[in-house]
C-alpha cells in the first residue's frame, strides 16, 4: 500500500513519516508540499538524512490519487476542506490531521475558527477519530477527522466520568498545559525562543477552537453536559500536553471506585495507561510515543475529582493517533508502526 | 541598621542579600549558616563575588542578637520556630520566610506539615505578612510570618472577589504552575535536570501545605468560603509562579466591572499591576522583580471568572515580599531596596 | 541630562531603559521607534508596566537633537551610520550599540557584513568602547562604537596574554557559546523555540562578522597576531555568552603566573572578576549584571592556556557596557546605574 | 537469545531496554539491580509501563550466567571490572558500558580515574568497541569495552584526518558540549535544575577521564599524535553531544577534498552521516537515534580544519553503540534493533 503525506514540511507531517516509513503494511510514502516541488525533505529536515530519497512532490490531485491508496493531510486550516472531497470522489481514503472536518455544525466552526467551514455533506460524512471510543465507526470511515491534541488528552481523561454520569454537568474545568511544538513550525513572536524560555503564558482564554470540539463529543456521550471552562497554557518545552481536569462528583465516591472504573474502561486500550493510586503521569513519560497516561485523585474535603491526562501532542495528539486510526480503518492491529517506547529521559 | 540573614546559603537567603545589600537604610548585612562557619559566601555562590567579604558566621543566638536589629530567617522548617522566640525575648524583630508561623492553629499545621508546630503563643503573636492587605498589623509586628509563594499569588488574585462576596463560596479552583527554584537548593531526583527538563509534573495533589494557609486568609476575608481545590505543577523553568484561578460568579457580571474592581482594589498597591482587558501576564514579565501581575477574564458561556496571577516565586513569593514587609514594619517607603525592573527577556 | 534610546522595542533597547531609568544623572529617557509612533512601550513589553508613561516617539532628527544630550542607538545595521553624523553635527554625543562604526576599514566592513560601510571620516572619528582598555580615548569620544557581545568576552579574556606577548601569534582559537537573545527579537526559524530547545547549533562557521572586530583590537595590542579561528554556537538559553579561548604558550608557564597577571591587569576594573585557581565561571553567575568573569587553566601536557570568559550578552555585551561607556564619557563613576548584582539562580 | 542488563535503573540501562526489547534476535531481557530486588522497573521508570512485567532481579552471578547469553553492564565504575571476569570464565559474553576496560594501561586508568584498575589480563582481552573502526576485532570479542560518549563523537570526527596524516600532530583541540543526562541519574548540585537551566558550565578542565581514552585510539591510528586539548561543557539540555574539533592542516587543502575523504571513509557506515558543503549538524538532528552526524569546514585564512560531530550521548554514546557492537559480535546486521529515526523536533 502506498500513502501520501500532504504537508510533509510541518512537524506533524515529519512525524507521520517517522511512523509510516517503518510501517509493515506501507510500501511507499510519498511526500507532497505546496511550494517545495522537487526539493529533498532533508533540506527542511536534515535529521531525515540526505540519502533517503525523500523528495517533495507537487500537489497535483490527479497524480496524488493515482499514486496512493490513503492520503494524510497535515496542513494548515482550509487545505483539506478543499482537496479532500476531490480525493474521496476518486475512492481515496483521507485522514485529516487539521481541524477542517472535526465539527459537525459548520456555523460553530465558523464562529470559533473565524473562517469558512467545509461543505456540509462532508462534515457529516467525516468520522471523528478518537480511536479508543469510536472504533466501530472508524472501521468504516472514508474521511477521518483526526482529533486535536487538547481534545485527545481531555476526552480520554473525561470519558469514563461523563459516560457514566458521575459528575455535575456544569462543573468541568480543564486547565491544559502544552509544549510549543503544537504551534507548528511557522516562526512568530509567540514561539520565539527568548520569549518562551523560562516563561509560562496563558493564551486564547475562553476562545480556543478546541472548546467546541471537546463539547461536541462530551454531549454525544451525555446530553446533559454544560459548557466547559477550558484554558490553555504555553510551557517552555517542545513536546507534551498535560490536561489537569477538575469536576465535581455527584455523589460521594472513593478513589478505588474511580480507579476501577478507569482501569476497566481502558482495559483493552493498548495506548491508554491508567496509573495506580497516588501516582500521576508526567508528560515526559509518554515522550515520542502514542501513549496517553492517566492519573486520578479524589478529594474528600471538596468532593472534587482531579484527572491528569498526558500525551505527546505530536504523537497521540496528531501523527500517532492518525496512524492508529489508519490501522483501525484498514483492519490491522492498532499498534502497527507505533511500537516505540517513550524516550526517557 | 544592621540585619541578619539566617540561612544565607539557600536561594531565598541569597536573594535577601541581593535586595538588602543596596537597601538605603541597611548599614550591614550579617550572614549566618549552621554549618559553614567562617567560609566565604562566594564558595557557595560565586556570583556574589570573591572580594565582597561576605563571610558566613556561626549561628549563636547571643551574638546574633547583639549585632543585629532585625533577623530574617530563610531556613528549613523547624529552625525559626525554635530560635525566633529567643530573639524576640531580646527585643529583636524577626521576619520568618519559612512556614513555621503562618498558621494560627497548631493542629492544622501538624496535620499538613506532618511535624510539630511552633509554640501556641508565638503562633498568635505572629503577623501574616501579605503586605498589600495587612499593612496596619504589619506596622506593629515583632514577629512576621512571610507568606508562602503560592499563597501570595493566589491570595492577591482572589482578594477582590472574596472580600466582595462575588463568587460561589465552594467554587474556587486554583491550578498553580511553578518554576523549580521553589524547591530550594537541595539536590533530589525531583529537581534533577534530566527529569525536569522538557517535562511537566503535578505533585502533592490535594496535599500541599499551602492549602490551609490560603484557606485561613480567605476565611478571614469571608467566613463563608469553603475548602478549595489547589493543584501544584512543576514547570521546566527556574523562576516564576502562575496561579490560574477559577471561580463561579454569583450573579452575571461583566469584564469591565471586574477590571474596575481590581484596578480600584490595587490602586495604591505599588507592586500589583492589573492588566487591561484581554491582556494576561506571563511569568517572565515579573522575573527578578517584586511585582504581582494580574489578568482577568469572564466567560459568559459558563458564568465563570478566570484570574491569572503571576509572581517571581523567589521575590514577591519570598525575599522581595520579606523586604517589603521589613519596610512596612519600619515605616519606610514600601519599595525601598526593591526598585528593580523585571529582567526581560 | 536627557537621553534618547533609538530602537527601544528591541532587547538591547529595553535593557538600556532598565539601567538608564534609575541612573542618578539621567533626568529623562526618551524612547524612539521607526514604526510605532505614539504607542506605549508596554504594548511591546508589558513587563515595563502600563502606567509608566513610556511612549514611543517618532524618529525625527531635529526633535531628537533638541530634546536630548546623548543618543543611544540600539538599531539594526545601517540605521546608525545614516543618522549619527546628523546628530554629531549638532553637537550631540552618540553611543552606537550596532556594528556600524566598529571597524576602521570600510572595505573590511563590507566584506564581512556584506553591506555598505559608514562614511570613512566617521569610522575614523568613532572610538571603540571596550571600557576596560580604552578609557582615555572614551573620555574624549563624541561617537562611541560599543563593542559586540562576542568581542567583549573574547577581548577581555585575551588582553593580558596578547598585550604581554605570551602566546604563539597564530595559535588563538575561540570557541564561543551564546544564548539566543543575541539574535534579537525578530522571529525566524533559527530562533523558533521548538528548533532551539534541547539543541546545540554551530553557525556562521569562519564567517562571523565579529571576527574582524576581534582581530582589529588584537593587532592594535600586538601587531604580530595572526588570523584567529572563532566559532559561534547557539545554546538553548536566553542570556549569556561563554568564550572558551585556547592559545599556545610561548614558553613554559605556571598557572600562578597567569593568575597573577590577570588579577593585576584587572585590579582596577570594577566589572572584571578573575576567579581563583581551579575555579571557572558559569554564564549564570553574571546573569543580568555587567560583570565579565574570567577563569584560567594551564595544561602542562600541551603547553596550552585555556581562558574562560563569561558575560551577559545583553548587559556587558550590549546595554550595560554602553552605560559604562556613557559614564566614562561623562566623567562619572564607571558603575553608576549599573550596581545590580547577578540574579541567581 | 536471552540478555541481561545490569544497572537497569540508570539512564543507559533503560535505554538498552528500549532497544533490546524489540530486537528481533532477543527473546528475553532480564534486568538486574544491586538494591531493588523484586521491585518493578516501573517504580523507578513509570514510562516503561506498569504492566510490562519488567521486574528487577538480584545480582547473583550464578543465576545471571545460567539465564543469559550476553550480559550488558551499565554500571558505575568498579562493578564491571569485578564481575565481568566471573562471567567470562563461564563463557558468557560481556558488553561493558562503563569505563572499566577501555584503557589498556592500568596505570593510566589509575591516574585519570583515581581508582584501582581492572586486572591486567582482562584489560588486554577487552576489545574497544568503536564500531565503525574496529569491526574485525569486535566480531571476535568476548569482553567488549563500549566507548565513552565524548570519545565516540570525537574519534569518529577525527579518524579520517588522523589516519591519513593530514593534520599537525600537536594541533588537536576538542571543545565538547554535552547535555546533562551524561552525568547519570544520581542527584547532585551539579545536575540540579535551577543550577543548570539557563547556564553553561565548563568542568574537569584538562582533567576529564575521556582524554586518555581518546589519545589511546588516536595513537593506534597514528603514532605521532601528541597530547590533545579536550574541554567539556555542560549545556542546559538533556541529551546530545557536540564535539567541535579544531586541527591545523599540514598542507593547504580544499573543503571538497575533505568532504570526499569523509564521505569515502564512512561510505559503508550506516550510522555515520556526513553533511554536504556548508552544512553542519545540530545535536537535535540525531536525538534518540544511533546516528553520528558530521560537518566539516576549512578556513583558508588560518589553514585550520573544523569538524563538528554530534551524537545522542545515551544512544551512539552509550546504549545504541552497545547494541550495534552486540550485532557485530553476533554476526547480525549492524542496525538490528536500532532502526529508529531521530525524534524531531
From TrEMBL, chains A, B, C, D:
Pfam families hit by this protein: Semialdhyde_dh, Semialdhyde_dhC_1
Sequence ranges assigned to domain Semialdehyde dehydrogenase NAD-binding in this UniProt record: 2-141
Gene3D superfamilies: Dihydrodipicolinate Reductase, domain 2, NAD(P)-binding Rossmann-like Domain
Domain of life from the UniProt record: Bacteria
Signal peptide: none
Protein name from the UniProt record: N-acetyl-gamma-glutamyl-phosphate reductase
Catalysed reactions, semicolon-separated: N-acetyl-L-glutamate 5-semialdehyde + phosphate + NADP(+) = N-acetyl-L-glutamyl 5-phosphate + NADPH + H(+)
GO molecular function: N-acetyl-gamma-glutamyl-phosphate reductase activity
Record EC number: 1.2.1.38
Function per UniProt: Catalyzes the NADPH-dependent reduction of N-acetyl-5-glutamyl phosphate to yield N-acetyl-L-glutamate 5-semialdehyde.
Keyword terms: Amino-acid biosynthesis, Arginine biosynthesis, Cytoplasm, NADP, Oxidoreductase
Family: Belongs to the NAGSA dehydrogenase family. Type 1 subfamily.
Pathway terms, separated by semicolons: Amino-acid biosynthesis; L-arginine biosynthesis; N(2)-acetyl-L-ornithine from L-glutamate: step 3/4
Localization per Swiss-Prot or TrEMBL: Cytoplasm
Active-site residue numbers: 149
Amino acid at each position: 500500500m502506498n500513502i501520501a503525506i500532504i504537508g510533509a514540511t510541518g512537524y506533524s507531517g515529519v512525524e507521520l513519516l517517522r511512523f509510516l516509513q517503518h510501517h509493515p503494511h506501507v510500501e511507499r510514502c510519498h511526500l507532497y508540499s505546496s511550494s517545495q516541488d522537487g526539493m529533498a525533505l532533508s533540506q527542511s529536515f536534515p535529521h531525515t538524512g540526505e540519502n533517503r530519497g525523500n523528495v517533495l512532490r507537487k500537489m497535483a490531485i490527479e497524480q496524488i490519487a493515482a499514486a496512493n491508496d490513503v492520503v494524510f493531510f497535515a496542513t494548515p486550516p482550509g487545505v483539506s476542506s478543499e482537496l479532500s472531497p476531490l480525493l474521496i470522489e476518486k475512492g481515496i481514503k483521507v485522514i485529516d490531521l487539521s481541524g477542517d472536518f472535526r465539527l459537525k455544525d459548520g456555523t460553530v466552526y465558523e464562529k470559533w475558527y473565524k473562517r469558512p467551514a467545509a461543505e456540509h455533506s462532508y462534515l457529516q460524512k467525516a468520522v471523528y477519530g478518537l480511536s479508543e471510543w469510536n472504533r466501530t465507526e472508524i472501521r468504516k470511515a472514508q474521511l477521518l477527522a483526526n482529533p486535536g491534541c487538547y481534545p485527545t488528552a481531555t476526552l480520554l481523561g473525561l470519558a469514563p466520568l461523563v459516560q457514566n454520569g458521575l459528575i455535575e454537568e456544569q462543573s468541568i474545568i480543564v486547565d491544559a498545559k502544552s509544549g510549543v511544538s503544537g504551534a507548528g513550525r511557522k516562526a512568530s513572536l509567540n514561539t520565539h525562543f527568548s520569549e518562551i524560555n523560562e516563561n509560562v503564558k496563558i493564551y486564547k482564554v475562553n476562545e480556543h477552537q478546541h472548546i467546541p470540539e471537546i463539547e461536541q463529543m462530551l454531549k454525544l456521550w451525555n446530553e446533559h453536559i454544560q459548557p466547559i471552562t477550558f484554558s490553555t497554557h504555553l510551557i517552555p518545552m517542545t513536546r507534551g500536553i498535560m490536561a489537569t481536569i477538575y469536576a465535581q462528583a455527584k455523589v460521594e465516591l472513593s478513589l478505588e471506585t474511580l480507579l476501577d472504573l478507569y482501569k476497566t474502561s481502558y482495559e483493552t486500550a493498548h495506548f491508554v495507561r491508567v496509573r495506580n493510586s497516588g501516582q500521576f503521569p508526567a508528560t515526559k513519560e509518554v515522550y515520542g510515543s502514542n501513549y496517553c497516561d492517566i492519573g486520578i485523585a479524589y478529594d474528600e474535603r471538596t468532593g472534587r475529582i482531579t484527572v491528569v491526562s498526558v500525551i505527546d501532542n505530536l504523537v497521540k495528539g496528531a501523527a500517532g493517533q492518525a496512524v492508529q486510526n489508519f490501522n483501525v480503518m484498514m483492519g490491522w492491529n492498532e499498534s502497527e508502526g507505533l511500537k516505540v517506547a517513550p524516550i526517557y529521559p
